[in-house]
Structures are given as structure tokens and as C-alpha cells.
Amino acid sequence: MPVPDYSSDEMMTVSAARALRDGITCFVGIGLPSAAANLARATHAPRLVLIYESGTIGAKPDRLPLSIGDGILAETADAVVSVPEIFNYWLQPGRIDVGFLGAAQIDKFGNINTTVIGGDYAAPKTRLPGSGGAPEIAASCREVIVVVRQTLRSFVERVDFVTSVGYGSGPGTRQRLGLTGAGPLKIITDLGVLEPDPATQEFVLTGLYPGVSVEDARARTGWDLAAAAELHTVDPPSAAELTALRGFTASAKE
User: Whose CA, among 122, 168, 169, 195, lies 20 to 30 Å from 243?
Assistant: First the structure.
């Protein structure tokens, strides 16, 4: 088999970018979600409206921002509003189509942990950066896409701490909690794509990247990962997608 001319991270970012439709509003996190959203805007979705937690609406950076406070977001935005307006007017009433999130841990029901590793909150093995706006993004966006590298450390049977609710413990949890958004509809990793089973809401494998097997994905998953009956192979990145993505990456390093 020929060696691909792209990395697993590039494949993951391209796959995540393809999940975004032109003309929608997208609440973007820093890191892989930001790279994917900006790639989508630079390729197939030029009318994608990027919204960052710092208050920038319609940001159009020509390089990847270093943080939500990076000046390039305000300099290229259609509008800059207060953080309370972002949350109280845009996010909580359900005006944002897609929320893009990362995760330190994620479980089979799409619950996200970015708070602590280890069962004791007061004395954890590792204390993580925390939630930021992720819980409200997970609760209120019309749909959520999670972008995360797939490892046994990150893909666990049950997260150590629920920072952002996915489907809780299964069907009915979001409704009982009064969460208005549909919840996570895709988990996009460096191996493939997972989507929730309509009946159980447990995430199953629906797409694999070229050269990746079901066994590869199961070996890096902390639960008994099921595969969809119509499992498909995701198309590799095009030359245009790689050129645009590498342009963003190169500018971020300058």
C-alpha cells in the first residue's frame, strides 16, 4: 500500500471541515476545531460564519488564531460584541447551528471531560483547563461536532467528570435535563468518524480513513465499539484541501 502524503491529523481536520455546511453559524473552539472551521471557510464553505467565545462574529483570520483573544479575530470580524451577548443572545436561545468542541476524555454517550482525570475532584491525578463555554455549547447549539484524537486514554467507557453533557446515560437524558440542542452528532478522530446509534445513542463507528481497519479503531477505544452495517471509507484529502490547510499551519508557525 502506498504511503499517504498527508498525516492522520490532516485527515482528521479535513474530515471535520467537510462536516460544516456553507452559510451556517459555527461556534468555534481553539485548536483542531478552529483549524477545521477555518479550512471549511477557505474551501467549500466561504459563507460559513465563525463565532468565537471572546465575542467575535464572522471572523475571517488568514492564519490560525493562538487563542480566543487573538487580535486577528477582532480585526477580521463582521462584529465584536460582549461575551454576555454571545452567550445570552446567540448561544442559549439556539441561534448557533453547530458547536465545534475538543475533549480530553469522551465516553460512549458523547459526554466530555475537560476538568479532571481521576475520580477525586479535590485531589485528581490531573487537573485539566476546565470548561470555558463548552457546557453551554454542548447544551444549546443545534448540533455538536467533537474533534479529538482517538486513544485509550481519551476514549473511555465513562468519563471521570462530566464537563459537557452528550447523551448522559442514554435516551431521555437531555430531555430530562432540559437541554435544547440535539447533542453531539459526530465524533471525528484521527482514525475515522463515529455517530450515535438512533436507538441507544451509543456512539458507533460509521466511517474509516484509508488504511485504517475496524480492529485499529477498537484497539484505541475504551468501550466495546460497534461498527455500522454500512461502514464507509472516507475520501482522502484533496490537493486543494491540503494546500489550504498547510497554508494555515505554516502561517501559524511564523
Answer: 195
